[in-house]
Specification:
Layout: H1 3-12, E1 34-36, H2 53-56, E2 65-67, H3 72-87, H4 92-106, H5 137-140, H6 143-155, H7 165-173, H8 185-195
Antiparallel strand pairs: 1-2
C-alpha cells in the first residue's frame, strides 16, 4: 500500500498520521509466548448457537502460532473487545483481528506509560499513541474507546474481511513488525469462539 493511500485511509478514519500510529510490539513481558500447534476451540452453550469457526479464520492461519495463558484481567479485556465489536455492529472476524492485534501489542493488558522501556507514548490494549491522534491517554486506556478507534481504522481498509489478520492489523497499526500479528490468529479465534455468545 502506498503512503498516500495509507494516509488517506487513516485520515478518513479520523486518525492523524505522524510517522506511525502505534509503537511496534514491545518486549515488556518476562514470559515468552510458546509456539505450538493449536486445536481450535468451539464454544457451545446449551441456549446459544455456536460461532461459525469458518468465519473466524476464513483462509487459515499463517505460520507458526503462539499462545499465552491469560489471567482474569486479560480475559476481561478480550471480552471488552468483543463487546465493543458487537456494539460497533461488526462481525466476529473483526473481533478476531482486534484481539490478535491486542495480543501482539500488549498481550491483552491495558498498559499505561512504560517509561524508559518505551520511547513513544503508546498506551492501552493496542499501544495507540495520543501524539498520533488516537485520543487522549484517558481515552486510549479505556478498552471500549481503544477498540472502537481500532475498528474505525479497520472499517476504512478495503477488503479487510478477506485479508489475513496480519495484513489487516498492519494496515491500521503501521507497526515496525508487520508480520508479527499472524502468530496470534488461532488464539484470537479461540477467544472469540468461546466468548462471542457468552
Amino acid at each position: 500500500m502506498n503512503t498516500i493511500f495509507r494516509k488517506s485511509v487513516l485520515g478518513v478514519a479520523g486518525l492523524a498520521f505522524a510517522g506511525g500510529l502505534a509503537a511496534g510490539p514491545l518486549n515488556h513481558h518476562d514470559t515468552t509466548p510458546t509456539t505450538t500447534a493449536l486445536t481450535p476451540v468451539v464454544a457451545v452453550q446449551a441456549d446459544k448457537p455456536a460461532v461459525d469457526t469458518a468465519k473466524l479464520i476464513p483462509h487459515g492461519v499463517q505460520g507458526a502460532q503462539s499462545t499465552i495463558t491469560l489471567n482474569d484481567e486479560q480475559v476481561g479485556n478480550a471480552k471488552a473487545i468483543i463487546a465493543a465489536t458487537k456494539k460497533a455492529g461488526m462481525p466476529e472476524r473483526a473481533a478476531v483481528i482486534s484481539i490478535g492485534t491486542s495480543l501482539q501489542e500488549s498481550k491483552l493488558e491495558n498498559l499505561g506509560h512504560l517509561g524508559d522501556r518505551n520511547d513513544h507514548d503508546s498506551l492501552g490494549l493496542f499501544q495507540q499513541r495520543p501524539s498520533s491522534g488516537w485520543g487522549t491517554p484517558e481515552q486510549i486506556t479505556d478498552p471500549e474507546y481503544s477498540t472502537t478507534a481500532f475498528l474505525k481504522g479497520l472499517k476504512q481498509v478495503d477488503g479487510w474481511q478477506d485479508m489475513p489478520l496480519t495484513q489487516a492489523a498492519q494496515t491500521v497499526q503501521v507497526s515496525a513488525y508487520p508480520d508479527a500479528y499472524a502468530q496470534w490468529e488461532q488464539q484470537a479465534a479461540d477467544l472469540v469462539a468461546q466468548h462471542w455468545n457468552s
